[in-house]
Amino acid sequence: MASDGESTVVEIHVSPGDEHDAAHGRRSMAALGASVGAHPLMGRAYERDSTRLPAESFGLTPVVPPKRNRTAPWDYDREAHKGRNMVERVFNRMKHHRKAATRHDRLDETFLANLQLIPIAIYLKNTAKNPISVNTP
């Protein structure tokens, strides 16, 4: 899943539970490309050259800390990487919905449809707390 950090899900894929997320993350980065012009915030699990270098080739600037055992570590924006917390919050909010947390759906299409509906429900819940009047100038 790719998120803008608030509650908006930008890209979402369903993958088998026994596969590493890096390959699917690369697929998301290819789909997003430079159109977003963003700096993907990634954890150390995605710091391998096989994930970081393709992100750069797609026009993205990945913000990922190098592992401690890297022989040639690179500099990264530590302040920007703190924003990764906001993306983790989006995951947490989605897991509050039982359909996403338990995954009892038999078909991937059904599970994906539920994952696509949950951000809409979150958005509607947030806007209901702060209603916007149509008559305001």
UniProtKB/TrEMBL annotation:
Q: Where is this region: Disordered?
A: 56-77
Query: What protein is this chain from?
Result: Transposase
- The source organism is Bifidobacterium breve
